[in-house]
Amino acid sequence: MAKKTIADIDPKGKVVLMRVDFNVPQDDSGAITDDRRIRMALPSIESVIKRGGKLVLMSHLGRPKGNGPEPKYTLEGVAKRLGELLGKSVAFAADTVGPEAEAKIKALSDGDVAVLENVRFNAGEKSGDAAFAAALAGWADVYCNDAFGTCHRTDASMVAVPEAMAGKPKVVGFLVAKEIEYLSDTISQPKRPFVAILGGAKVSDKINVISNLLGICDHVLIGGAMAYTFSLAQGGKTGKSLVEADKVELAKELIAKGGDKLVLPTDTHCGDDFSSDCNKQVVAAGEIPDGWEGLDIGPATAKKYAELLKSAQTVVWNGPMGVFEMPPFDEGTKAVAQAIADSSATSIIGGGDSAAAVEQLGFADQVSHVSTGGGASLAMLEGNKFAAVELLDNA
């Protein structure tokens, strides 16, 4: 799925319209609490401006209604933070396709940067409106997609805008190129043994991922609250654990399909309350007493999973093994993270909670790749193709 990248384009004197993912977390006052997504886009941004391109950045932030500006979702603070990281002035347009955006873009000199206001303030972004897309596309000589976190979506800035730029270069940024390399190319031709670890709360969120990976992996290890739905499917007792009773039949189908490939926990770390200081006990999987809930895989399961990971050559991990934010129920997730870090495998960590866990536990520098997109990485692990990537220029 190799695509041309921003490095393949000479941007000097050209307007480069780049879709980035600046959907950063903020506190109640609007202050950015984690600028990782801005920092991850810097290599692509710097590639354009250092080579004399005129860079126009567009992104969404949060979930505005699409009826105009909503101050809590403005990108003005993001533009300011980007300027601090770049060490240079960054222009900010208080609209997306209006007169201010047009004026700010026309005023750009080679090597300058402008950030447009939140694309989702316009209803046309979510609807894929052709006029909205044409207005954005009309300003640019080059389109660049460096927003992996939204690559699974068909919003105007992801699909209709590049479609409206027929005949002009349409490329990926370095971040999207890296995600494709790991999540698509590595998985399509994995070194074996290929082991997947899937956790999180709901089987329903991961059904298609589990099903797809069972077809290509040597082992699929299950943890997190979804394990209790599998326990229920095997006739086990789950106490007051989080389960999806309506997904038991699906769990049975996956057990039948998976055979020896599907590896379920053998023990469970339980609590009598959802808190760090609750009473605790370790029980065999499927034997959680009434009034107790499973909050982590047990030590025997953690040891077994670590052993399977030791010989792995390719590892994909999406979803924690337990309530990793609440010690001591972070032990299973820690054990898996440590085993991945210690292995010689190409290791790919899915976005969302898995990425947060790896960062929080200090293992981010010891894995091959931490994905920036939770929903997008899941969709790619399901084997889906993305229209936002397919329409870009092939290498």
Automatic annotation (TrEMBL):
Pathway: Carbohydrate degradation; glycolysis; pyruvate from D-glyceraldehyde 3-phosphate: step 2/5. InterPro entries: Phosphoglycerate_kinase (IPR001576), Phosphoglycerate_kinase_CS (IPR015911), Phosphoglycerate_kinase_N (IPR015824), Phosphoglycerate_kinase_sf (IPR036043). GO terms for cellular component: cytosol. One of its GO terms (biological process) is gluconeogenesis. Keywords: ATP-binding, Cytoplasm, Glycolysis, Kinase, Nucleotide-binding, Transferase. It is an enzyme of class 2 (transferase). Its EC number is 2.7.2.3. It holds the Pfam family PGK. Substrate binds at residues 21-23, 37, 60-63, 120, 153. SUPFAM superfamilies: Phosphoglycerate kinase. GO terms for molecular function: ADP binding; ATP binding; phosphoglycerate kinase activity. It is found in: Cytoplasm. (2R)-3-phosphoglycerate binds at residues 37, 120, 153. The keyword Nucleotide-binding applies. ATP binds at residues 206, 294, 325, 351-354. It comes from the Bacteria. It catalyses: (2R)-3-phosphoglycerate + ATP = (2R)-3-phospho-glyceroyl phosphate + ADP. Belongs to the phosphoglycerate kinase family. Monomer. This is Phosphoglycerate kinase. It comes from Aureliella helgolandensis.
